Amino acid sequence: MSRARVVVLISGTGSNLAALLEAAATPHSPFEVVGVVSDREASGLEHARARAIPTTVVRLSEHPDRAAWDRSLERAVTAHAPQLVVLAGFMKLIGPPLLAAHGGRIINTHPALLPSFPGAHGVRDALAHGVKVTGASVIEVDAGVDTGRILAQVAVDVRDDDTEDTLHQRIKDAEQPLLVDVVRRLSSAS
Ligand code: GRF
């Protein structure tokens, strides 16, 4: 069986990446992670290195401008010839080159129930608003900020004593299986 080639983009601790790697290592997984790309020396890269999966760091600071970085990012991803690109805690907006090359095959996971609380602080914003239920969303990436088609969501109750950290941890616990499920589903369909 040929497995779908998946490239994962991260900026942080990579717990979602770790869940994808674990799922990819199970027998009969419909996908494999063929490369991990980051915009910084993210601690999450270790999950990939531990499994000898190629990693690439594309730093904005090493490029003359954002457009040049956008082009490098696209090249780093396309080099792995992916069928699916997964933004798993990638904290930069992706630019036109990546969208042009892989549009319709890029997904993102977001720690809130979109369309509520888009942007970089979904957990903090939900907590500040006082919602009683929040969660995670896996969406298709388009040119907007967290505006793409919603593929799957999971709800997480907010507790009275939650901090941003405790709430985000419970969201991540629910988000990881959700993301794995969507990647499996899209991979089986590709
Ligand atoms: C996830 O909650 C993701 O939705 C958000 O940032 C977090 C990344 O976590 N954008 P990790 O790096 O996968 O642990």
Automatic annotation (TrEMBL):
Recorded metabolic or biological pathway in which this protein acts: Purine metabolism; IMP biosynthesis via de novo pathway; N(2)-formyl-N(1)-(5-phospho-D-ribosyl)glycinamide from N(1)-(5-phospho-D-ribosyl)glycinamide (10-formyl THF route): step 1/1
Signal sequence residues: 1-18
Active site: 110 (proton donor)
InterPro entries attached to this UniProt entry: Formyl_transf_N, Formyl_transf_N_sf, GART, GART_AS
Alphabetized Pfam families for the sequence: Formyl_trans_N (PF00551)
Keywords: Purine biosynthesis, Signal, Transferase
Protein name: Phosphoribosylglycinamide formyltransferase
Lineage, opening ranks: Bacteria, Bacillati, Actinomycetota, Actinomycetes, Micrococcales
